[in-house]
Design brief:
By secondary structure, the chain is of the alpha+beta class. It is built from 13 helices and ten strands. The strands form two sheets. An eight-stranded antiparallel beta sheet has the order 2-3-4-5-1-8-10-9. A hairpin with a 5-residue loop joins strand 4 and strand 5. Helix 1 crosses helix 9 (227-250), helix 11 (279-295) runs parallel beside helix 13 (328-343) and helix 12 (305-314) packs antiparallel against helix 13 (328-343). The longest helix has 24 residues, at 227-250. The protein is globular and about 65 Å long.
């Protein structure tokens, strides 16, 4: 059963949006873009950012960002940062001179020496683009007080990739779109969004696949448009896409609905009784049980949508591993227990 909502739009947004993110691409004046820097320049920039950013008054007031040298931590720690979306697959794969700064609550992430010198990210759970924007913008303005950004009066913020020129702002939402994922219209819908300046991608963004009907929708255009307008237009696009997904579900034939219900009940059985679950199984179960909420099925499910949002990340491999040498059986059992405790209530 769904939580009680004030109106249909609010219900659809809350039940469909997993998380919101705003990312600002920035570069430091006087340095080439990362793709053209040698390792000595990258090392020098890392040290400059590490030293100067710590002097920002906003950062002092809010509590220092934790500086994580990605060459000084083990693979599991890097994988954990990737699963939380605090770093990108690109930064994860770079061989040296890379770092990330994170806030204590992990709603702030600043990637250093990714495709740009700085990629400042603000995160919010659920549907809260404005909240994510405020987080990122506050950090951005604090940094601008202590470092000089590469900026052109006509082009705006200068970035490594021309598609980020201007505001350098990419806003994205992680969306649960089960009906579209099952429907043949997904490719057509993705193409339509692309023509309007939006990209529908997989769980980890560019070049990745969806997990459990969860997709990432983001803006493509950053030049010739203001930051607030980018957010407003994305919000409108999100609303329409979610409405389409819900309408597709409402239009299911009796046979289609029975097939989904049957699949959901099987997933419920696994969630309730399975001794161990691999990642693919857990992702599918979490997706099916979230869909069960939407369909109003009489199952003993957790009523808190935020727990369904968090489970998307918590079941990932690095999250449920205590160390790299742990027995695989232990990970399977821990994941099954996590799914059961997070998503189900007692019969």
């Amino acid at each position: 059963m769904l939580t009680q909502y004030s109106d249909t739009k609010t219900m659809q947004l809350e039940e469909s949006v997993v998380s919101s993110r705003v990312r600002l691409a920035r570069n430091i004046s006087g340095y080439p873009f990362p793709g053209r820097m040698n390792q000595e320049q990258k090392s020098k920039l890392l040290e400059e950012i590490k030293t100067q950013i710590g002097e920002a008054e906003f950062i002092k007031a809010a509590g220092k960002l934790a500086w994580i040298d990605l060459n000084a931590v083990d693979k599991r720690t890097k994988s954990l940062l990737l699963e939380k979306h605090l770093i990108s697959p690109h930064l994860f794969a770079l061989p040296k001179n890379r770092a990330v700064m994170t806030g204590l609550d992990e709603r702030i992430s600043v990637m250093v020496n990714e495709e740009d010198h700085l990629r400042i990210q603000g995160f919010s759970s659920g549907y809260d683009l404005e909240g994510a924007y405020v987080i990122a913008k506050n950090v951005d303005q604090a940094f601008e007080n202590v470092v000089e950004y590469a900026f052109d009066t006509k082009k705006g913020y200068l970035t490594s990739c021309p598609t980020n020129l201007g505001t350098g702002l990419r806003a994205s939402v992680m969306l649960f779109l089960p009906a579209l994922a099952l429907d043949k219209q997904l490719a057509e819908e993705s193409e339509r969004l692309s023509c309007k300046g939006y990209t529908l991608r997989g769980f980890y963004g560019e070049g990745t696949k969806s997990q459990g009907a969860v997709f990432q929708l983001s803006n493509q255009v950053t030049l010739g448009i203001g930051e607030e307008e980018i957010l407003t237009q994305l919000e409108n696009t999100v609303t329409k896409l979610i409405e389409t997904d819900w309408q597709l579900m409402e239009d299911w034939s009796p046979n289609e609905r029975f097939a989904r219900e049957n699949h959901i009940w099987k997933s419920y059985g696994l969630a309730r009784y399975a001794k161990g679950l691999n990642l693919v199984e857990a992702v599918e179960i979490a997706s099916d049980l979230r869909l069960a909420r939407r369909m109003g099925l009489d199952l003993p499910l957790n009523r808190k949508i935020n727990d369904f949002n968090k489970i998307v990340y918590q079941i990932q491999t690095a999250h449920i591993s205590s160390d790299s040498e742990e027995d695989r059986k232990e990970r399977l059992m821990r994941r099954a227990l996590l799914v059961r405790k997070a998503l189900l209530v007692d019969d």
